[in-house]
Amino acid sequence: MLTRLEEKLLQFITHYIAQNGRAPTLEEIGAGTGVRSKGTVHRYVESLVSKGHLRRTGRGWRGIRLAGEYDRRLIILPLEGRIAAGKPIEAIPDQDEINFSDLLLGPDRYVLKVSGDSMIDAGILDGDMVVVRKTDSADNGDIVVALIDNEEATLKRLRRHGDRVELIPANSALASMVYPGDRVQIQGVVVGQLRLY
């Protein structure tokens, strides 16, 4: 059972992590909840840890993470239905959920921030984040993270031609890159994409 102030702090921390991808400092928690005493904030945060709503993953306040049901709220969202991006369709709400843990998270997943416009025709824009499944193999047509000559990494669509590898941009203004297979190492396959507005 949480006190009203514990619930207020927990809601602030939950929203802060969802918006910023990291935990707030004690000062930020105090400013966001109207609690002036840093000692009071510290005491209530420690109480939330001992009650199992927060957990520590490192040193310092930025190492605080959500636990239990609150952690689950960040990765499962309700699926409210479908929306037309063309001709309007009838709005019929669904009662399902999308579990982002199953789709995007896992021990073999990592995120890269995209820099450049070589994949814009695939809908991957400069500044987007892609979720990558770590693997050293991929199928033709996969969007991959490819390391060339152990020096430069790039995000391209993969096409194998015998002992040669073609890395194909999704931008009609750019040309494909073709290399001997031994010069290209696959480091992962894109499984998802994130874009914040």
Brief rundown of the structure:
This protein is α+β, with helices and mostly antiparallel strands and 197 residues long. It has five helices and eleven strands.
Description of the structure:
- The chain folds into three domains: 4-74, Arc Repressor Mutant, subunit A (Orthogonal Bundle); 76-104, no CATH class; 109-194, Umud Fragment, subunit A.
- By secondary structure, the protein is an alpha+beta fold.
- The protein has helices at residues 4-20, 26-33, 38-50, 68-75, 100-104; strands at 54-56, 64-66, 76-79, 96-99, 109-113, 129-134, 143-148, 152-161, 164-168, 177-180, 184-194.
- The protein has a seven-stranded antiparallel β-sheet, with no helix packed on it. A two-stranded antiparallel sheet has the order 1-2.
- A hairpin with an 8-residue loop joins strand 9 (164-168) and strand 10.
Largest sheet: 7 strands, antiparallel
CATH class of the largest domain: Mainly Beta
Q: What gross morphology would you assign?
A: elongated
Task: Report Rg.
Answer: 22 Å
CATH superfamily of the largest domain: Umud Fragment, subunit A
Count helical runs.
5
> In CATH terms, what is the architecture of the largest domain?
Ribbon
Give the count of structural domains.
3
Helical residue percent band: 25-40%
Proportion of residues in β-strands? 25-35%
Going across the biggest sheet, name each strand in turn: 5-6-11-7-8-9-10
Give me the count of strands: 11
What is the third-level CATH name, the topology of the largest domain? Umud Fragment, subunit A
Q: State the distance separating the first and last CA atoms.
A: 36 Å
Could you tell me the mean pLDDT? 83
- The H/E string reads HHHEEHEEHEEEEEEE
